[in-house]
Automatic annotation (TrEMBL):
GO terms for molecular function: glycosyltransferase activity. It holds the Pfam family Glyco_transf_8. Keywords: Membrane, Transmembrane, Transmembrane helix. PANTHER family: GLYCOGENIN SUBFAMILY MEMBER (PTHR11183). This is Glycosyltransferase family 8 protein. Residues 1-30 are annotated as: Disordered.
Length: 366
């Protein structure tokens, strides 16, 4: 028997901020500028140059004296040692596959008609880049946007640390549920498939923008999954696919239920152009869950590209108050409207307030 619906809770945050706070100015205003005496400035520059020359000299001496076998892959002009490549590399199942491409988080903002999604994107960016307990500053957050997102919003996201990539809408040719009108904004969700074409990155951790972090996701990158050879996708199942009901009333899985239906809101992927092209041609699935249905059809456990499982504590797709202390890395829900324990909503609201205070404290009156 599925869990009883929890009472609807309304956040005390009545509405999200429509736009982001103003970015910090790139340079202080005239009345804030600090003048450095010329003599002191010249002394500082001289010391800096001396330190730089000593560092370069030591670096070149080390390169000359290293034996060929101990250089470990360093190449002039590469700008990095092999150990850096190993850290950013993708290793297959014992095959030693290494890539020097970077890793990144990625999310998708298709519209701000519902401003809560912009607020959620801002919160995810803040948690990944700025919050002391949840940040992973070694990896950027890529925000995919469409032509429906105002340039001002994209600019503000970039000022706050995001890498914004505008992509074309993928809407033509994909099946949509009969009850969904042609102008319904959910039909834009197929555009999320662009994440598989971001081949400048070795691996991506895709996060729906309504993911709430409880701790840093950095440890999740230590896994060797996924690789293109084994399917290219890893995640956490929502329910058994036989129990998926085509309505908006999602129900919690039973104890011990085999969750072979991937929730596409939290996925680690290996981008691959061939996979992207194949996904655009996939048909023959029930389209109620849009791109999630397509991905489950292509990456089905019984098919040629089975998806792999991440640590089940990576994300709770059905948050409850106990999850706040169970060791979960993140919670996945629309905190402003889903039926969730009040304690979880309170935690989310405090996180939003922390974010707003963080940016208010950095605003400068110019």
């Amino acid at each position: 028997m599925s869990a009883k619906p929890r009472p609807q809770t309304k956040p005390t945050i009545s509405s999200p901020t429509p736009l982001l706070p103003l970015p910090l100015p790139s340079s202080p205003s005239k009345r804030q500028r600090i003048r450095v005496p010329t003599a002191a400035f010249k002394l500082l520059v001289g010391v800096g140059i001396l330190i730089y020359l000593v560092w370069v000299g030591g670096f070149l001496w080390e390169c000359v004296t290293l034996s060929p076998g101990s250089a470990k892959g360093f190449a002039l002009g590469s700008g990095s040692f092999a150990h850096t490549q190993e850290k950013a590399g993708v290793r297959g199942e014992g095959e030693g596959i290494i890539s020097d491409k970077p890793e990144a988080y990625v999310t998708f903002l298709s519209s701000i008609t519902d401003a809560w999604y912009l607020l959620s994107t801002r919160l995810l960016l803040y948690q990944l880049h700025h919050h002391p307990h949840t940040s992973d500053p070694s990896r950027p957050l890529v925000v995919l946007t469409t032509s429906q997102i105002p340039t001002a919003v994209e600019t503000q996201l970039m000022h706050q640390g995001a890498e914004v990539k505008r992509v074309e809408l993928l809407v033509d040719g994909f099946p949509i549920p009969e009850e969904m009108g042609e102008n319904h904004h959910w039909k834009d969700q197929y555009t999320k498939l662009h994440i598989f074409n971001l081949t400048a990155y070795s691996r991506l951790l895709y996060l729906d923008n309504d993911i709430l972090l409880l701790q840093s996701l950095a440890p999740l990158w230590e896994t060797n999954l996924p690789t293109v050879k084994t399917g290219g996708v890893a995640g956490v199942g929502e329910r058994n696919k036989l129990n998926m009901v085509e309505n908006d009333k999602r129900t919690r899985p039973e104890e011990g239920e085999v969750k072979d239906y991937l929730n596409a809101g939290f996925m680690m992927i290996t981008p691959d152009g061939k996979t992207f092209d194949e996904l655009r041609k996939v048909r023959g699935y029930k389209p109620f869950y849009m791109e999630q249905a397509l991905l489950n059809h292509y990456f089905d456990w019984e098919g040629a590209h089975p998806w792999e499982e991440l640590d089940p504590l990576s994300v709770s797709h059905f948050p409850q108050k106990e999850d706040l202390t169970r060791g979960y890395y993140s919670l996945h829900a629309k905190m402003w409207k889903d039926e969730i324990d009040q304690e979880v909503v309170d935690y989310w609201e405090e996180s939003v307030k922390d974010m707003e205070q963080f940016w208010r404290s950095r605003m400068i009156d110019v």
